[in-house]
Amino acid sequence: MKRSSSPFLARAATAALLGISLSATAAEDAPRPAELSPIFVAASAYAKIMCSGIFVSGLRESQIRLEDLSTMPPIPVEIDRERRTVTAVTRSARRVARFREGLGCTLDNAPSPLLDRASSPKSYAQMPEATAGRPAALPLALHPQLEKILDHAFREDDSALLKNTRAVLVIHRGKIIGERYADGVTADTPLAGYSMVKGVANLLTGLVAQRGWLTPQRIGLRPEWGVAPADARNGISVDHLLRMTSGLDWSEQYLGAMSDLMTMLTSAPDPAAYAAAKPLAAPSRPADAARALPNAEQLSTLLGAPGMSRQRAETKSVLPGQAWRYSGGSYELLSDTLAKTLRAHDEDPLVFPYRNLFAPLGMTSAVLEAAPNGTFMLSSFMLATSRDWGRLGMFLLDEQRGKPRPGVALPPNWLKDSLRPTLAQELPVGTEIGSGYWLNSLGNKLPRDTFYLGGFQGQFLVVVPERELVVVRLGTTASDGNWIMRKLLEELMPLVD
Known about the structure:
Elements: H1 11-20, H2 38-55, H3 61-68, E1 77-80, E2 85-89, E3 94-100, E4 104-107, H4 146-154, E5 165-172, E6 175-181, E7 191-192, H5 197-210, H6 238-243, H7 260-267, H8 271-276, H9 296-303, H10 309-313, H11 328-344, H12 352-361, E8 367-368, E9 382-384, H13 386-400, H14 414-418, E10 432-433, E11 438-439, E12 451-455, E13 459-464, E14 469-475, H15 482-492
Antiparallel strand pairs: 1-2, 2-3, 3-4, 5-6, 5-14, 7-9, 8-9, 10-11, 11-12, 12-13, 13-14
């Protein structure tokens, strides 16, 4: 989850970039980077978000405009329900997003034949929560004292800072003790998690690793990195991608037409190839500068022994593993690595998540959305109902407590290792992050074992193992939504022991 603050006049560009995350790529006649424009990005955002909202979530067009796209200027759209497309039309851009069963919505940029499937990669339909025999049914034990807390989570107290909460779900000891939805949303409405899918990417990596097909230590991930013998990018590992410590010179800025994010989202036919072409970053501080770490051994491992300080100071680029930088590009590289690994073992990468993760957990609503080149967008695009996000949280809770689920086999200690704090330069003060999961960043009143998935517009899946607690909050908050989740958890914790 990337946080951003910007002036009001820049919010349209910010929303456009964040909103489409990593699914918007080039138009059929892909513009060169110099020709990119804010209106091209905005039209891409409109088409993609509207398509997912209508054809995956089943929301109303007016609701999507007023909430998901509230910070952007209105753009006319043409909705073709027969062809299941949404076209955003401006004077200088015409952007089409197309829905495919089991693949969600993708911008129509000369899509790969991999997307033109005879059947959906998702071999089962979404099963309504009220259906008899619902897999992984969640029992209800509603807590009456939660009603006031849920009131607060949905109440709009400030017209200039709307919460736009769509769903809140609280699961304690395997039972739903609190649940509420906004108008137009139900327990059967799949909602976007945006960067929450990075945790799913971690689990998919673990499932592939358990089969012996991949390890976190694998390097040499891209053939272009191995051409030059001295190319240090060839030392980027799977773990570096998961922890966003690849060292690649990546800008996750949402303003400025030439940011890496904007260029990749609107003009790169292959997101992973675009990210792979980035060089290693230049150090932003002397490589031997002191950085507070838990102990001297870790400091030495990360930065080298004291006798190496002169050599490190002369380093012209950050090396893999040295520095942390939020990067959606890292997860597109990971997505491509997983896809190639699965194909090498005769597995369909578009089918694999549904068969080996979502189906065993009973997450029948979950939809991963695909890029035009036929890989899933594991940086930003997955939708699921609040209860299915909750089922994912319960799985994580069980894994953390050493109670593995049948049918979903991860390597021993996979989640424990994933929740190990990343040690690297450039981590913002107060930030702790693991391998696809945020750690201990929602206030000091929570137990230290708390971890969570977070996404744009205030999406949260919080797991508190000490309290056997899972909390899901989904919405369309225009600003950083941490304040909403902090308040919700602060009020909730005294009621759960």
